[in-house]
Amino acid sequence: MDALLDIPLIAQATEVDTGDTAWMLAATALVLMMTIALGVFYAGLVRSKNALNTFMMCVSSIAIAGITWALIGYSLAFDGTGDLIGGLNYVGLHDVTFEPRDGTTIPHLVFFAFQATFCIITAALISGAVVERMRFGAFLVFAALWSVLVYSVMAHWAFGGGWLIEGGTLDFAGGVPVEMGSGFSALAAAIVVGARKDYGRQALLPHNAVLVLLGGGLLWFGWFGFNGGSGFGTGDPSVLAFTNTLLCPACTLFVWMLLDLIRGRRVTAVGAATAIIVGCVLITPAGGFISPGWAMVLGALGAFPVYAVIVWRPRTRVDETLDVLAAHGIAGFTGILAIGFVAQASWNGVSDGLFYGNAAQLGDQALAAAATPAYAFGATFVLLKVIGLVMPLRGPEDDESVGMDAIYHGEEAYPTGEGAILVSPEAGEEEPVPVAQP
Fold it and tell me: Theoretical Cys-Cys bridge with 87: which of 79, 118, 197, 289, CB 3.0 to 4.6 Å?
């Protein structure tokens, strides 16, 4: 013990802690699983002929955003202290090793991997705005460029030493780059790509509510890693965020069920799954900064603006298909602002909000709530317009009629045929062998 006390405090702080590292490895796996869970959630919300394509948009984001993040996105987000964008020292994972990243007790490689899963799921989230009509290849190009030009910039602002975090904005687990970033980018994508051919003319209903509930439940499970891991260890911030990730969505779900009951006299499964997502998003930026009691209040009150936007949106001409704007953009906006009101230094050790005597914190949060939607929407709008000059963003209307599963993957989520028959050269001597019998 005496020898340990003789080690300078700085040296002690830069050692890898095995407990923190073990938790962060698990949290990283949980967040990666969330992208698959999102695919299940989204697939259930679309028509059966597009379920596989919708799922594949999420799965493909693991490849596209994962690679771009390793090659350049991580460096732009987390290298250097520039106000708007990071540096290039970490390009291709240069200098990303087993040594702990500054300010953490986990290997730099683990920090990189954890942040990679955030970039991946954010790119996948935007697909919900353009499902059932955007060409698969065009989406892959968009995901690659968006993850570098939009996500990395916002991640640097909020987490990597950029102007928002340096100015005092608090964002525990991604209210800026993940939630508001995906939500307002989704709105821009829906406007540029345009509505489905049958939008406004016939009911375009979810085909499998069980998948929606399953995906929502798995997302909640993964969110304990998403928020709980954002403390980068097993200390008080992670414990607080972990607990708040249980309480906030539970309150959102309760209020949402009441709203469904009042509005339609039925508690819907799709509504319940949506409420879980909304509650998780509400607490994402605030998880490590507000008390459990306020987390419950945020979950209850935050349900109202999001529910209102979801009810209102179908009355517009904007086919933002799976309500990414409401569930992520509006909920993330609400969570970011909530920090400015109810953050408590007695819980977070960092700052109080307006209700506890620090009005300046609300100003910092409001700045992020204004700047992020503007950049996310504007940059995504321009990016898709440029991509549209090079390649079509959507195929002919006949493709939509047939369904994206068959057109872009040559497969179906729910095959209806009896399968092909393989006929051997000795057809007269042997019985045919069926090769596919769904």
Answer: 79
